[in-house]
Amino acid sequence: xxxxxxxxxxxxxxxxxxxxxxxxxxxxxxxxxxxxxxxxxxxxxxxxxxxxxxxxxxxxxxxxxxxxxxxxxxxxxxxxxxxxxxxxxxxxxxxxxxxxxxxxxxxxxxxxxxxxxxxxxxxxxxxxxxxxxxxxxxxxxxxxxxxxxxxxxxxxxxxxxxxxxxxxxxxxxxxxxxxxxxxxxxxxxxxxxxxxxxxxxxxxxxxxxxxxxxxx
Length: 216
What we know:
This protein is mostly beta strands.
C-alpha cells in the first residue's frame, strides 16, 4: 500500500511539473487559463476584492494595482453564460468570454452606472455563489489576427453597452488607497489596451497529455 501511494504521488508530482513547464511554453490564451491582465498605458493589473462600491451599483469593486504579487489579480477565462468552453480551447479574436475573479468567484461586469471618480461607466464584479451572473458579464475580445496570444495587446468590449474595459488614470483613497479606477470607456483609446502577463496558461494539448491513470 505504501509503495502504491508513493508511486501515485510521484506520478501526480511529475504531472504538475509537466503542466507548469507546458504552461510556460504556451503561446495562446485559452479557456481555463488563469491570468493577470496588465493595462498597457497605466501599468496596472486588473484587480478585485470583497470591497463594495459606496455609490452606483453597490456591487463588488474592480480596481487596478501595481503589485504583481497580489493574489486578488487572478482571473479565470470562461465562455459566455450558458455555454461550455472546454479547458484548453483557444480564444479567438471576436470571441465572447467571461473573466471570473479567482478568489471571490464573481465575474467582471458592467452596466449603466457611473464610475465613482471619473464619471465613466462603472465596472464591477458580479454573480451568485456559483459564479453565475448575466449578460452584463460578457466581453468581446478585440485583437489583431485570428487568436488571442499571450504577448498580444488586446481590448475587451462590453457586449451589452459597447464600452471598452479601461483604466481612468484616477486613484482611490481609503479603504483601497492608491488603487486605480477601472471603467468602461467610450472608445478604444488611451487606457483600453491589456496584455496577459503572469498566470497559468492551459495549452490545448495538455488536456490529453495530463490524462494520467492512477490505478496501478
